[in-house]
Input
Amino acid sequence: MNICLISNNNYVDYVSSLIVSILKNSSLNDKFHFHIIEIDITDYNKDKLKELKNIKDFEISFYRPEKYINKAKELSNREHNKYWHYTIFIKLFIPLILKDLDNVLFLDSDQIVLSSLSKFYEYNISNSYLLVVRLFGHNISWIGNNIESIMNKFGANKNDYINGGILLFNIKHLYNNIKYDELSKNIDDAIDYFEKIGIGWTEELVFLYLFTKKISYIDCNVVYGTDINNNSPKLSKSIELLESNNKDEINIIHFSAKNIKPLSNYKNIDIYYNIFWEYFILTPFFKENTIKYINIYSNNISKYNIIKLKSNFIKIIDKIVWYIPIKKIRNSIRDSLTKKIFE
Output
């Protein structure tokens, strides 16, 4: 199973947590090849990612396509795109960078996977270039009449908008119908199209423009940052799947909003924060910098009333301090964290 991730050195700890979640929730027969498009990940941190093979064996390849990285940076500096980080524009070039693969599942790095990714491959996409997750409700409520009228011009509507955080590319079928140079030109033409209109655009609009009639949509349980911020009804279903340990339905948490980043700023501490840390503590990054990450964990928690989740957080505290080798220090930190959080 080919998995594509994009990261710079500052985001590699999220990548490690995502990979852990994929491996821990995989089926016995799932085999993975991670294709990491990276900007500046150090060799030292690459080796730490490779250490995750101790959980389950996998293949891993790193790519640093300077041409497309520089192009993505240039796109993010354009007048209407300055809100977006340049890494989202690298997604546009995945079919060009990974052109020799038959297919590849791209995942944004700030996600946790709670089911086997093999479920994505159970869908028939033999006649599609792209498999995407359909968006609903407040996740598309921001799309106004102006954007929708633009989408209408190339045969799409508001309900066709896609989630750019999960993209399964059918690369083989794509190149059976479009030559490499033609696809490259089509991408450039799509970018020019939105630039001339004069709107802020993302990779999602470009893929819609390019592949409108060749996109397959699926409905699955993906919890987004907007769902967490808006207390979406999807949250209860996600929790039900977690509590039932149901691996037969795709279940993913995407920490997509700026105020719900578990390793920096998390708005309202909840079960999803707890879930992230259950996976992150299994990474070499946590084990090597335990005190640093314990401080991040406790600083976020101390800001909010999380008494209702007390039992969950005591469990996670126990898991966190377990990696401290000296018992006296371990017990002291456990007591300090518990007191700081709950008193």
